[in-house]
Amino acid sequence: MRITAVLIALALLVSGVSAMELKTYVGNPVYVFDGPKEITIVVENRSSVSKELQINFATSADYDIGPYPNELRPHESRKVSITIYPEEGFEGSIFESKLIIKLGNETQVKNMIIEFKETDNSDKDAGEIALASGFFTLFGTAGNAGLSEIVFNVVLVVIAAILLIAFISRYTRRITR
């Protein structure tokens, strides 16, 4: 019975852990006009250990990924740019693309739509994608998480804390007898 309570408490604590989060400030679809379109991503390692970084972009369009380090040290962040180039005959085309970011053993996938247009009719700036990796980013995601997600995470944390306190009190009661 005690082991079950401990396993449930640990499962609830682990379910509140968000090892990597993806904040998107890039409009979807991403519009590419007469010139190259640059997208900036910010990768942050919030953990206390160095992690290997890999960035892949799966698309039919011609693109370049700017230089980035092979490894991020603890609490280090880096900006990486992805440049999408317009191609002759792509005007009016729409491509589904995937941005795949691996930080250590954690992977985030951002599905994107790239639309090629002839002229720029918008005032939109190139956006940013902020990516963070670390332990328990419940309050770090509050800016982009929906209210229901925050409430759910808080409820899980409260339940885990109650179970942990109950386990500790039972354990100390048995020791003092």
DSSP summary: helix tally: 2
Radius of gyration: 22 Å
Mean pLDDT: 75
How many angstroms separate the termini?
A: 19 Å
Query: What is the general shape?
Result: elongated
Content-based structural category: alpha+beta
- Widest sheet, order of strands: 1-10-3-7-5
Stated plainly, the CATH topology of the largest domain is called Immunoglobulin-like
In N-to-C order, the SSE pattern is HEEEEEEEEEEH
Uncertain ranges = 15-19, 123-128, 133-144
Oligomer: single chain
* Helicity range: 10-25%
Number of strands: 10
Number of structural units classed as domains: 2
How does this model look, in words?
The protein is α+β, with helices and mostly antiparallel strands and 177 residues long. Mean pLDDT is 75; it is low at 15-19, 123-128 and 133-144. Strands 1-10-3-7-5 form a five-stranded mixed sheet, with no helix packed on it. It has a five-stranded mixed sheet with strand order 2-9-8-4-6, with no helix packed on it. It folds into two domains: 1-18 and 136-177; 19-135, Immunoglobulin-like (Sandwich). It has two helices and ten strands; from the N terminus they run αββββββββββα.
What is the compact description of this entry?
The protein is α+β, with helices and mostly antiparallel strands. It is built from two helices and ten strands.
